[in-house]
# Entry
Amino acid sequence: MNAMDFVAQTLRIAVPYLLAAAGGVLSEKAGLIALTLEGYMLGGAFGAAVGSYVAGAPWVGVIAAMVVGAALAMLYATSAIRFKADQVVVGIAINLLAIGLTRFFLRLFFDSSSNSPRVPGFEGSGTGFVALATNPLVWIGVIVIPVVAWVMYRTPYGLRVRAVGEHPAAAASVGVPVTRVRYIAVLLSGMIAGLGGAYLALDQHQFTDGMTAGRGFIALAAIIFGKWNPLWAGLACLLFAAAETLQIQLQGTHAIPSQFIEMIPYVLTIIALAGLVGRAVPPAALGKTASE
Amino acid sequence: MNRKAVIEEAILPPFVALLLAAVVGDLLILSFGQSPGAVYKLLLEGTWGNAYGFGQVLYKATTLTFTGLAVGLGLRAGLFNIGAESQLAAGGFCAALVGLLLPAGIPALLCLPLYILAAGFGGGIVGAVPGVLKARFGAHEVIVTIMLNFVVLALLNYLTSEKVHVPDTLHTPELKSGALPRIGDFLEPFHGSAANATILLAIVAAIVLWWYLFRTRRGFELRAVGLQPRAAEYAGVSVAGVTWRALAVSGAIAGIGGLNYVLGYKHYYEEGFATGAGFLGIAVALVGRNHPLGIVLAALLFATLSQGGLAVNALVPKQMVDVLQAVVILAVSTSVPEVRRLLRARRSTDS
# Structure
């Protein structure tokens, strides 16, 4: 494998991470823990498969993925903000709900407990970069991080998101509609992370049970490792994806056991949280909607 | 707050949750073209209605009691242990390793303490890491325990598949000593179900934890830190000490739960036996309101749902119960603060 193939493969693996991390940064910056990324992605993947299967067009799947992601995000936001439920508990429940609902409807729609039938994806021609360049979700994945960074640091809405994530009471006192800013941030995070799931399902031309396989947590790890800065989080996504590409390359050579490369994102995140290589400090009001 | 008010606040949310779960369940069942009544009847018959099904409920409730107690202990100290799954797995793995070193034919009662120590050690180490990182560096235990789940499970996967597995399987060789008796060995109707003597360990664990939390100084300190860490610190409690101890003990409890599978059921460690038990442990602690008795009852509820899924699979997909379990968690977590608010509003208008 030459260097270009390595980069192309890394990008291919990174796209769902980039999408989920971009969504997750929005949610976390607004003060809502993004434990739910895994659920948004899984729901999005299922929505994409159903939409694309029913309409015979991948774009319909993409829209369906955003709708499912937004619906799960709405449930999360309502529970955490309106009902002041504990974010961690609700987040876990949303992930379990996404697993349960996708399994149930997989049986109901496709009479299978493992996978959907083949669905249309963005049929590209060629391999490597050519195949990637013909997939619009790859383009969205590449630009979503800079876009979120721009929104976060260059627009009034971004300023408000950061304000409600750091000090909601102060934000409210200067007239920021804290609740509305948060709902919008969480809804957007669900839609964008749902796109990450859509990429997975359309890339593989089917939905398979549990196909996100912890990618939402890798994206969360990237956010923390990137110290809640969207650009750094995006770089962390690329780093983790490169490690995965390396793991695939080394398979069969037994140079390093694949399990140890799998651990890299999680170990790095723990180290970053412990402050051993530059402290990762979360938004001050993160996770505290229950007590506000 | 008087006793009646406390009980109201504790009992009402689970009922609201079950009601909501039943409504969602009805919708799912109807979407599959079945009658809810028939499905619920089958669910009850397949779980509490016959000895085998009940045995399976008890078996699953045993594991969930351990992970529920682990999560509940953490929450009493204000700490969220999301790592019960990997702690359970590590406990089972360490117990299996010790078992592989023991010669055949030692009576179960003699080597049981050794197994408990090994399982508690395995889970305790996994729990102590986030505890120390929190106490020493302030690293948030929620994220660390989640991330550690992946690290530990990958490590156990490596050790099992590269070092100690039986070829072409994902499990270790069978242990030659320490197998715990199953209920089916004494009561014929239970034959075939996995329920085993680990149930007694789970009950003992619940009682010991109750005693520790509510009858010892250490337990009092732990609860004080959970309620008001600053006040506790001011009163001379070492918050850092409570933090790492609570998470280490929490991990150890989850780890001992691994014996249910390793000593009580299969007599070997197998990849993936702990899958899902950690997250359900959170649900169990939540519904059981972090009280050992509540946790035991909640473990029975969630075990009934798990086993009930298999019982109704002929009519509706067993995956329905995955949805119901999530709905119960969502409903309890949203209704606890809501019920409290409503009850307090009503009381303040009454008085």
Remarks:
- Chain A touches chain B through 47 residues (CB under 8 Å).
- The radius of gyration of chain A is 19 Å.
